[in-house]
Write a structure and sequence with these properties.
The protein is an alpha+beta fold. The protein has 2 domains: 2-198, Fructose-1,6-Bisphosphatase, subunit A, domain 1 (Fructose-1,6-Bisphosphatase, Chain A, domain 1, 2-Layer Sandwich), CATH 3.30.540; 209-337, 3-Layer(aba) Sandwich (D-Maltodextrin-Binding Protein, domain 2). The protein has helices at 8-14, 23-45, 68-82, 150-153, 222-232, 235-238, 250-260, 279-292, 324-337, and strands spanning 55-59, 65-67, 87-92, 99-100, 112-120, 131-139, 160-168, 172-177, 182-188, 193-198, 209-211, 243-244, 262-266, 295-298, 319-323. An 8-stranded mixed beta sheet has the order 4-3-5-6-7-8-9-10, with helices on both faces. It has a 5-stranded mixed beta sheet with strand order 12-11-13-15-14, sandwiched between helices. It has a two-stranded antiparallel ribbon with strand order 1-2. Strand 1 and strand 2 (65-67) form a beta hairpin. Helix 1 (8-14) packs antiparallel against helix 2 (23-45). The radius of gyration is 20 Å and the shape is globular.
Length: 338
């Protein structure tokens, strides 16, 4: 019944007591993100019918081809977050530099910073596979009431106050945390609202899915090769049978493993010694969220993702993320065999 439905905005307001700092501002930011992703979802759903599928014939700061939906999603999030007075600076995977919020007399007293990957999984757009949006919110560290700075956006993941993602799939879901558990909301298109559908998400105690691009196997370190072969073989009798699942959209792979249990790996290789995924826009938000769901995220070499100090807006790091025991086991193999 309708009275049993709890919308995202209702939930955010009810949980304001969880917020340590400016409660109204953070609630407003989360609501703004919710509004923006509903607009993005509308365009994703009709992308095949209008001229926003395919390439925009531009290269982003990562050296990757920009898709039209990427640009649209980026614009919608920037507009939504700039329209209020709750955000002092924005950083996006699609922009080389920070996005300054328009101010009067160079004054912006807002206390929060938002970073995001507007449309994760761009390579899957044209084949109608799941894509997503990833975001994180920090409290500003720059002093005074001036505009936010790049340093505000380059904080350790430990400083995140809220993070989450949206997956545009068979249904559209928004999953987020403010550091006090993980909750998921499914978009009900009949009323245009995200409704609480997955409260208090925790990783299953035992995970049996491993997700990585096996086509790169020959480029893996010896330790990672042995770990993957272990999951394919001896693990069956020692810790249980494993299944390989890999979509190629970080949001989709993490979302599945969050609900089913498992490990996602995008390692460092000889060709990509720093890995491929972005620390600020992808790894930190996901690491913060998975940790709240009783998971773990490292670089595969004993360093927690959330403890890495960013030195560049577009810094990359390897990512090993999922059930704690599986992340620890992968690191054991790498430490032993290199």
């Amino acid at each position: 019944m309708l009275r049993d439905v709890k919308t995202l905005n209702q939930f955010i307001v009810e949980r304001q007591a969880d917020f340590e700092y400016a409660k109204g501002e953070l609630s407003s930011l989360l609501s703004d993100i919710g509004t923006a992703v509903k607009i993005i979802n509308r365009e994703v759903n009709k992308a095949g019918l209008v001229n926003i599928l395919g390439s925009a014939h531009e290269i982003n700061v990562q050296g990757e081809e920009v898709k039209k939906l990427d640009m649209y999603a980026n614009d919608m999030l920037i507009i939504a977050l700039s329209s209020g007075e709750d955000c002092c600076v924005i950083a996006s995977e699609e922009n080389e530099n920070i996005v300054e919020i328009p101010t009067q007399n160079n004054i912006n007293p807002a206390k929060y910073v938002v970073v995001f990957d507007p449309l994760d999984g761009s390579s899957n757009i044209d084949v109608n596979a799941s894509i997503g949006t990833i975001f994180a919110i920090y409290r500003r560290i720059s002093e005074g009431d001036g505009p936010g700075t790049a340093e505000d956006c380059m904080q350790k993941g430990r400083n995140i106050v809220a993070s989450g993602y949206v997956i545009y799939g068979s249904s559209t879901m928004l999953v987020y945390t403010t550091g006090n558990g993980v909750n998921g909301f499914t978009l009900d298109p009949s009323i245009g609202e995200f409704c609480l559908s997955h409260p208090k998400i925790k990783l299953p105690e035992r995970g049996n899915i491993y997700s990585l691009n096996d086509a790169n196997f020959s480029d893996f370190s010896e330790g990672l090769k042995r770990f993957v072969n272990y999951l394919k073989g001896d693990a069956k009798t020692e810790i249980g049978k494993f299944s390989a699942r890999y979509i190629g959209t970080l949001v989709a792979d993490i979302h599945r493993n969050l609900l089913k249990g498992g490990i996602f790996i995008y390692p460092d290789t000889a060709k990509a010694p720093q890995g491929k995924l972005r620390l600020i826009y992808e790894n930190n938000p996901m690491a913060f969220l998975l940790e709240q769901a009783n998971g773990k995220a490292t670089d595969g070499h004993g360093v927690d993702i959330l403890d890495i100090q960013p030195t560049d807006l577009h810094q990359r790091t390897p990512l090993f993320i999922g059930n704690k025991d599986l992340v620890d086991l992968a690191e054991e193999f790498i430490k032993k065999y290199g």
